[in-house]
């Protein structure tokens, strides 16, 4: 069975930690940062762990 290509869109949005968890960056940090307060930017810049049901599908997308 041939290997599936990795999904480049998923690799731009999700990263794998050393323990195998998937972390994703929140939305709203791509543009218009001048209009957001510093407190809001700090809160949005924090990464969060992907939910377990989603991580199974995303790990399949990230396989090389």
From TrEMBL:
Keywords: Ribonucleoprotein, Ribosomal protein. GO terms for molecular function: structural constituent of ribosome. It comes from the Bacteria. GO terms for biological process: translation. The keyword Ribonucleoprotein applies. Belongs to the bacterial ribosomal protein bL35 family. This is Large ribosomal subunit protein bL35. It comes from Bifidobacterium vespertilionis. The gene is rpmI.
């Amino acid at each position: 069975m041939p290997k599936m290509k990795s999904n480049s869109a998923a690799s731009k949005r999700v990263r794998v930690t050393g323990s195998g968890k998937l972390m994703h960056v929140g939305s709203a940090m791509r543009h218009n940062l001048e209009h957001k307060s510093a407190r809001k930017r700090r809160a949005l810049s924090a990464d969060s762990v992907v939910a377990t049901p989603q991580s199974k599908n995303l790990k399949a997308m990230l396989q090389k």
